[in-house]
Amino acid sequence: MFIGKIVKSDSHINYVCQIYGPREVEVEPGPADYAFGRFVRVAVRSALTDAPDTRIVERALGKSQEPVTYAVGVIYDTILLNPAFGSLGPRLSNETQVELFSPDYISEKAVLIYVMILGMIEQRTTLLGASEILSTMHGVPLLSLELGSEIEIMNDEEVRAFHFFSDPDRTGQAAYLHMGYLPHIIGQRNSLLPMVTLRIIDQLERLFPQNLSLLSIVKRNFAWRLKVETTG
Amino acid sequence: MIDPAHIAPSISRPIRKPVGITKGPGESTHEYTFVSRDDAQELKNGEYVYYELSEPDESGLTRLDGASAFTRRVLGRIIKRVPLKLYPDTFLAEPEISPAQVAAMVGYDARANELFELHVAIMGYYEQATGSFINPWIPPQSGKQIFLADDEMLATILSRKRAGQNGSATIGSLLTRAPEAVPIVLSVKDLVSTHLAIIASTGAGKSYLASVIIEELMQPYNKACVLILDPHGEYNTLSEIANATQFAEQGDGRGSAYRAQIKVYKPEQVKVRISSLKIGDMRHLLPEMTEKQQYLLNRALRKVGETKRGTPWGAADLKAAIRAVSKQKGDEDSDGADDSSTVHALTWRIEERFENSFTFDDIQHLDLPEIFKPGQCTVLQLNDIDERDQQVVVATLLRRLYQARMDTERGKVHSGEYYLPYPVFVLLEEAHHFAPGGTEVVSTSILKQVLAEGRKFGIGVGLISQRPGKLNADVLSQCQTQCIMRIVNEIDQKSVAAAIEGVGRDLLNNLPALSKGQVIVAGAAVNTPVICRVRSRFTKHGGESKDAPDMWQNYFSPEAQESRRRSEAPLNSNNKAFNLMR
Hints:
B: alpha/beta; Rossmann fold; 3 domains; eleven-stranded mixed sheet; globular
């Protein structure tokens, strides 16, 4: 499900997205869709621009077997934007009247979400319609995202695939749980990021019950620093 | 001859890999530190590493390969290992999850996670000519490559002799390397001339090591003349040497073939001739004599010595002399002092002490040329002999040996009982009985004398003790080669530390960590103190502790019960009651 599009970026890994408002999409995303700590993905245009795009129809139909690269991120902040706030000045009609009398008046109110990019995932759809993960990478993506790119929420299966893989440079190694983005989350100066880490761990605990003890090490460490050391 | 320290890196050297890079000077003057990842886990404590030091050629000549500098290998020993990079404590919170797993999860490549700072005590570069290590007096520059000393290099420079060479004693191999990789070879010449001390707690393998040394001394490349004074009767298994092929050598046509001889004297065969006893020995054997008794005995001894003139005399002669002396004295001072009770008491004590003793004999005693022969190891078992008598046996024997060697060396004798024209080595078990610290016993002074001056006359002494703290400090300090095994007692550790040479002292911190059969060898017989794994014996070991539970179990075995039942049967001739009745 697409929930919005990129309208601005603060850095290579920090993007601001505007959530689709009423009448912009068929199904309007609700607050549950862009909840704090939710994993999202954005398709990256990695192909060369001057190459002729022959499979545009296939892609439109969702039948393309070309690999698609996504940047995977996490929602870590939400801003409710209301430019009308504070301007109490004279107005011709109130809100309900505007809707009634000038339906083409575009509302300036918006919900903005902040997304931090955690890594990349490359996948393609097989002939049978299943999605196949080709590679996964945690850390800073090489390619930047584009303004207007659509943001899609990830389901549990995709989140699991993003976290559970084997290291590409070691052949024959069993897949294991990765949280390779953790160091660069901690490196960011934002007061909400530690909290988002705890949320991520909560989700992973649900997705990977077999790794509870491993996750508990990181979780307890974070919880201690966040909850005990800051209050103590 | 090629000096191994001077071989240029290009010549005949296997490809070697540096193990680390120098960081800087260490805590003390002769230490440096280097940093290593040590993936192979080979940089153990006590391991030997070296760096290369280029020094201008002293001769000033340009060598064939054009290089005008020597590359010396400055050897050092790792003394401390400090981790530089450790996992955070919180990573260690779950016992079943390894910290590497946590690190891998957060994206850390766990292939190289450890980093160590290793402290090295500089020993110096080895100089073949002097056989010693020369300290460069300067720590290495930062950034120098550190190499692990290879087995071959260590074998060449740690030991003064090569294995199997004449005058060598291979007692084992370097502990930090694979067994047999780096043999530790003692120089028998230094071992024998400047004395040896083997010190260890009970059960650490003292007598095992001693037997290994004896085995080496009896090899065809040493053919030593050894005497073992064995208060516990543990060394009789050495007699296997006489039949083992490795202790024999084919004759080359000129001389006869060599075969090591082992002679074991049972306690009842160990005899001391009464005439070889001095007044000090007498005083020791007959304690708490009154002044009068001592005076009489002293005079009698002198008298009997004068009348017999070197020929042996016995207890009866001594008694007669006492009576004669007392009578003579009675005649001299005629004021009627009655010595008869003293004489009676003294003669009674001498009778009681000597006439039924199987150690003290009128005629027989240990014949020096018989017990000391090159290629022969003589074991004197003293196990059934009372401790005081043991001390006298040792004292008289050492005194006679010292006399014989001194007289032979000075050319006073050319044949006979006191002619010993070869150096000897005496191994003294339980040395703290014969030279205890604090008190003086009858064997202390002769032992001190032999240790101090024996070198001149070719008498080497090996002391074995489990209580260095109880051993006379002078005696211990005279032993220039020390073999120290596990010691737990703190007093003992301190007294060992005081006796060992300075360079090896840092090794002593390892003392409680040593296990059975591991020994620190320091002193004259090796080039530098080393920790060695004692090799296994060719002959069986005799000094093992008893397996008590096993023997108790045995008591109840069907065979043992049956034999007991039979011997206790009422009609058996062993049954006392039945015999009485009969």
